[in-house]
Specification:
352 residues, alpha/beta, Rossmann fold, Alpha-Beta Plaits, 2 domains, six-stranded mixed sheet, four-stranded antiparallel sheet, elongated, ATP binding
């Protein structure tokens, strides 16, 4: 459904994107992760047709973003970090307006708007002015405007930014409910949200893709954080601990600094796809160690993210020209030359 190959974007002499490539299958939710200035928003703007690439190709539903921009825009719904809403319009009127500028056929506007309202939980608030809505409901309106023309692809840039925990859960459940019928690219900084929502993850850093895969695969293969924590008697012979390192599947071990006065805590790091727990217990018994506690530790997506994105600190193009998610999106007036509308039909667009 989405294919990106060798995408590059250069501002002056500074590259913002360098040979970015990834793909998203139909019905998937892709988590698009990266630190500020990594190139996330630049990539999403290129996919949505908002920004041209310097080189490379991007296709949405088989249509080239550069060569067939109008066809791509008809098949994509885009929610920027700051939704471009008109605060003095009601929710329903705004969605009818968006349906018109997205060239939804007049006969389809009412069912499309009603479907978007119901999917996003806005039916009871459809007559409310947007300026009177909470942050969470405004985000819902932003997602509804991305859905109103029923696109096969939805691109969401930080859809939960600024929301409280309850609102985050509501928006997360909404996004999950859209999967299957739509292909979704989700850019976010909330890593646990990605683990609970996304089928696959692409991590970008300094304008380059550094990892792609399922959250589970990345957590298993790209970190050394999986293993066991042991709490032993502080009187153990350090030389005997080397026997634990000789166990098949054990990569290394280290002492933890927060050990209790009469206890010694040890972190054991394991190889991917290995479970040497029974062998570790047997070795502790044979060495005469007093084992007070043993617990499994697993790497998190946050560990993966930090491992892949904390190696460089030089400014990027997006840092320098401030094109990352810091600038609000401001809606522009409708250009009637680009979107001819039969004014005689306007009266039937709005509900009584």
């Amino acid at each position: 459904m989405i294919e990106v190959e060798n995408l590059c974007k250069i501002y002056g002499s500074t590259p913002a994107l360098q040979d970015v490539s990834f793909s998203v299958e139909a019905g998937e939710i892709l988590g698009f992760l990266g630190p500020n200035g990594a190139g996330k928003t630049t990539t999403l703007r290129i996919l949505s047709g908002y920004l041209p690439a310097t080189s490379g190709t991007a296709k949405i539903a088989g249509y080239d973003v550069h060569e067939q921009s109008i066809a791509v825009r008809q098949r994509i719904g885009y929610l920027p970090e700051n939704p471009p809403l008109y605060p003095e319009m009601s929710v329903e009127s705004f969605l009818y307006f968006v349906a018109r500028i997205k060239r939804v056929v007049a006969g389809d506007r009412r069912p499309n708007v009603e479907a978007a309202l119901k999917k996003c939980g806005l039916w009871e608030r459809r007559k409310s002015l947007i300026r009177k809505l909470s942050k969470g409901y405004r985000q819902r309106v932003g997602i509804a405007q991305a859905l109103v023309h029923d696109p096969p692809v939805i691109v969401l840039d930080e859809p939960t930014v600024g929301l409280d925990p309850r609102q985050i859960i509501e928006v997360r459940n909404l996004i999950k409910s859209l999967a299957g019928d739509h292909t979704i690219v989700l850019s976010t900084h909330i890593l646990p949200e990605v683990s609970m929502t996304c089928n696959r993850v692409t991590i970008i850093n300094r304008g380059q893709v550094v990892a792609t895969g399922t959250p589970e695969t990345l957590m298993e293969e790209l970190t050394a954080g999986s293993g066991y924590e042991l709490e032993l008697d502080s009187t153990i012979d350090p030389e005997k601990l080397t026997r634990l390192e000789q166990i098949s599947g054990v990569r290394s071990l280290q002492y933890l600094p927060e050990s209790l006065e009469d206890r010694r805590q040890i972190q054991i790091f394991c190889e991917p796809n290995s479970e040497p727990g029974p062998e570790i217990v047997a070795a502790c018994v044979s060495c005469g160690f007093n084992l007070y506690e043993m617990r499994r530790t697993r790497a998190s997506l946050e560990d993966v993210f930090l491992e892949l994105t904390t190696q460089q600190v030089t400014p990027t193009a997006e840092d320098m020209i401030e094109v990352e998610e810091t600038q609000p999106e401001v809606p522009e007036p409708l250009d009637e030359k680009l979107d001819p509308v039969d004014n005689n039909q306007q009266d039937i667009d709005e509900p009584d």
